[in-house]
Every structure is written in structure tokens, then in C-alpha cells.
Amino acid sequence: MAVFFTAALLAMTCPLMAFDLGQSTRCVPIPNQMKVCQDVGYSEMRLPNFLGHSSLESEVVPRSEDWRPLLQTGCHPQAQAFLCSLIAPVCLDTFILPCRSLCVAVRDSCAPVLACQGHAWPEALDCDRFPAQEDMCLSPQPKFNHFVKDLPKPACQNCPSVEDSPAMKTVLDALCQHDFAVIAKLSRRRLPMGEPEFEIEGRVEFIRQGPLLPYDTQHLLQQWLLINVRCAHALVRPGRAQLYLLTGAVQHDGSLALTRLFPRHKKDVNIAVATRKWKHHRC
């Protein structure tokens, strides 16, 4: 999964606008197995699509699944609409391409996620290839919820240090030095293709809440795992779950960074003692 986007990149080496807008197309139902584009607000798509794929079974459906891990990171709220407008274009009387402004918005949010995996934004999705006229293309939706903008966001980062069997003072110092501290169970699942490989299992326990919000933190940490998938591979073995004390900070740009992780094992009592003492500890 660390190189999940390789197949999609290879599938998109040909220029996007090689698709001939004057060629004959047909309308077909979006197949049920094409999960990536099941909830886009329409049920029929054009074939060939804007990537030049003409076969549902051998091209459209399998290549659409290559995008699922990127969408699962939540890198942009309109990433699905943008990608599906290309791989499953809506069947109307005219061709509707995504606007250049939509491409730029999605690229600016999602390209850093690809970079975290060691991949560049695909050349076939060069935003200059898309139309600039907002009234003849799929444009970005306005941001209605201004509060969401102020929530911490996961971002690509260097992998945090992992410290086994820490001394109690080490844990207390980490709690003092960072904005937040939580206990969470990181899980790496063996599930059918398309399901997130990493998740936060069960409830998140707050030791130091800081700027985090209870209803958002579990989802926030799971997105961190999916974005920083190389770090996640080092933290959790396949088919296993591991309990961690995680400490971190929220940066000036609003991005969340995990800084020190302490695996919680039954034989290690220092973490449990330190978290109990924290309520009355003076930094």
C-alpha cells in the first residue's frame, strides 16, 4: 500500500486531451462494483471516458479503484467529484469537463499526499489542460462551513520517534512539551480490496486534549495514518493492533504533527503510572 498510486500513474501517462470530444460515445449505467463513483449524484456515465478508457470491465472499473486510497485520505472534499468527472463523466447533451479552478483546488490539497508516497501529481492531470470558463465546466463548490477550516488537519511529516519502555520521567516530559496526548489503538487490517488498511480501533482516550476536539480526533488520526502510510507500516504489523500513547502538536498552519509515540505493553507500567500522575503534575 505504500506505493498505492503507482498503477494509477502508469495508467495516466497518455495526455488527457488525447480524448476526441467529437468522437461517438454511449451512455451506460455506472456499475455497482465501481465504488469510487457510486455517490456522485448521477447514475449514468459516458464511454469512452475522458481518460480514453472504453471497456468497463478491463479499464474503467479496475483503474477507478486505484484512486480509492487517495480519496480515503480526505485530501480535498471535492476530490471524488473531480476524479469521477474524468473516469465516469456524467451523461448529458454536452461534455462537462472539470474547471481549471477545481483541478487547482484538488491538486493543491492532494498533491502533497501523493508526494508523501513519493509520487508527483500526474502529468495527465495538468490543470492547464482544463477549461477556464466557470459556466461551461464543473466548478468548485463554495465553502459553507467556515468552522471546519479551523480544525486541525493531518499532513505529511517525517515519521515520529517510537520509544519502547520509557522511563516515567520521559513520558511526563513528553506530556509537558506537546500540545496534546492521547491513547489510541492503531490497527492494520486484512480486508478485501478497497477498504482502508489502517484505522483507529475503538475509542480514543485523552490524556491532554489541547486543541483537539473529541468528536473529530479518531477520524483525524485515521487520516494521519492513511496519509503517512509509510510511517503507519512501521507502527503496526499486518493483521495486528497496537496500543500507543501518542503526543504531538498543531503547527501554525493548522496541520497536526505526531512527535513521540510510546507503545503500551502490559509489562510496562511506567506509561500507566505517568498518565495517572499527569493530573497533578506540574511541568
TrEMBL record:
S-S bridge residues: 103-127
One Gene Ontology term from the biological process aspect of the record: determination of dorsal identity
Residue ranges constituting the FZ domain according to the UniProt record: 22-140
Localization annotation: Secreted
Keyword Hydrolase found: no
GO cellular component terms, A-Z: extracellular space
Keyword field contains ATP-binding: no
Keyword annotations of the record: Developmental protein, Differentiation, Disulfide bond, Secreted, Signal, Wnt signaling pathway
Top-level lineage group: Eukaryota
GO MF term list: Wnt-protein binding
A Pfam family the protein falls into: Fz
Signal peptide extent: 1-18
Family label: Belongs to the secreted frizzled-related protein (sFRP) family.
Protein name: Sizzled
Species whose genome carries this gene: Myripristis murdjan (pinecone soldierfish)
UniProt gene name: szl
